[in-house]
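help with this record:
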Amino acid sequence: MHSHGHSHSHKHISSDNQEMICLPGSPFWNVFRRFGRDEMSALAVSIVATILVSFYTKSAILLALAGPVIEKIGFFFPHFYEAWKNYKTQSLPKQKPAIIYFKKALENGAVSLLEDVLVHDPVYVLLFLSLSFYSGIPVWLMTSFSFLVAVIIVAWLEVGFTELRYRYFRRQILKSGFGIDSYREARFLIQSTVDSQKVISKLQSGLGLKIVEKINYHDRYFENNLSNFSGRAPVVRLRNRTLSARVNKLTKDLTKMLSTGDMQTVQVIYTRPQEEVITKLDQFRFFPVRKDKFFWFIDEQKMPDTISKLPEDIQKLIKAGEQYKEIFFKRVILLDKTDTLYVAIDLPNDNRPYCVIELKIRKNPDLFLKAMRFVMTEFSVQHTTRSKSELQFFS
């Protein structure tokens, strides 16, 4: 059943043209672009304000203050425009009240405003004072230079601060009794009509794998208010899965949970997709996801069906609502001899158009690359960075 692998040029495959590859972009560049745009908006407001004030007064002090004071509202305009666009483009079931979008816009605009006051204004004043010795330098050049310097400083500071916040979050969640599993993952969709047994056999022979177990999964994905950290997006889920021999030793003290024959966890997963950097020319492009999975065992005789049934300190930490999306699937797990490469075939429980092939690895990036290339060469697959909760055919 050899067929040609599809590279990333085929972006859409599901019935409603869901984009399959979604990259968050460079955190530094994202801040650079956002703060730069907000500064330009403020500059435009400053110019208009100064012109308008000049019609009513000739006071040099008032004219000097008008721009810098009134420009501050300019930091909010791009965010209000974005909020309005988001509000209008959301389909009705997903649309939240308008106030929620505008509250977020106020928060985001306030971040840019604060960065302007703490970084751009002092840089501008310092440059002005230091360059006033060289009276020949035009003001427009000084202004442009201070703008560029401030945007670069803000981008570095914000990215650094966000990384520190993520480290703090990690420390808090681990202190609360969560475990962590960090790995890289690649996900591919394959037509359900393809014989899964043939796919498994080809994976076994091509990558030297053996079937370790077959497991049933029941996941509930909850809406959450956790922060994004430099392109890492959060997912909160309750996962109920068949208890396997491999994890039995981890959970031997959890007697109530063991009596159910299932492994019950609440999980917070942070994922950041990125394109694999390939040094030599390749026919494919690869888009793996870096994952930090935080998990907490639920030692109960019955799996809670809502977040509100979890201990209060856990609820506070994971910031999840009551709205959820439910997913059932069967998983066949294959491992290589060294337990380095983990391959899963996820089969949705009813007639869905696609199955999912997942590759996971903690070390040995060369083996990971080889496995991704093998899957894309040997099978007609669609590469995706989407999680199961985002894939529309799983809902």
Q: What stands out?
A: Strands lie at 179-191, 209-224, 233-242, 262-273, 289-297, 320-336, 341-348, 354-361, 381-384. Residues 27-171 form one domain.
